[in-house]
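Subgroup meeting minutes
Present: P.N., E.W., G.H.
Scribe: E.W.

1. P.N. recapped why we're keeping a running log of single-chain structure predictions: easier to compare across weeks, and new members can see raw inputs and outputs side by side.
2. G.H. added today's entry (255 aa).
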Amino acid sequence: GLIKEVAQTAQRHLSHISFFDSSLIFSGSVAHDIRKPFRQGIIYGCLDALQKGPLNPTQNEALDNLKERLVSLDNMSEDMVGAFKNLELFLKSGFKPQKIDYTRLINEESKSFKPVAKERKLTLEIDLPKTDLFLYADPLSVQRILNELLTNAFKYTDKGCIKVKVSYHQDNNQKEILTEVSDAGCGISEEDQDEIWELFKRGKNGQKKEGEGIGLAMVRQLVEANGGKISLNSSKGNGSSFVFSLPAWEDRNAR
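Output recorded in log:
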């Protein structure tokens, strides 16, 4: 039983590594190539030269729109390069499932979002059971999952409440811990819900928000690499609720 469990954990980890490695090699290179003319000053130099010439109002407006889009592309390429560096560091740090004090981890992770909630006049509600919460998972993975889901919730919520609710769940005689992260944002239409789990894909509702479309794809891989599942309940205009499960430490001890 123990050998089988170790083999299954290793297989999930290898799947999760190959997913990111394949994207790191190609997409990281593309991001660097996109960023290069901006860093060398070529793009902005051309824009400055164009703005010095005599332009009519229509041309000025078109140039302003072009500059706005290029600045957005510049920021996105910079974000992508940073994201791939973080992923590379994360993968190199190793995958080490162990006993995790989940109550403590959630409280520490949510604490970093409280200043943002206060500044934007949002409510961050943490609902934990009174019993102790212990996971069997990789700590860095769980921290990254929570951070990405909370970041996503704050990104798309302009007013109202962001909630984190945790509960125990029994599934086929296996004890697991469910975590629900919900927001009061714009929601995700049904036709977009499958695409948000893919690299560089975001729902159309989020096109005006910054981001490189990596977060939720990574969250799903990390959840599954740790033996869990994640699902989405959302509709356009009614917010989103992400629910993920991870193995409970108590269940591991009982087998």
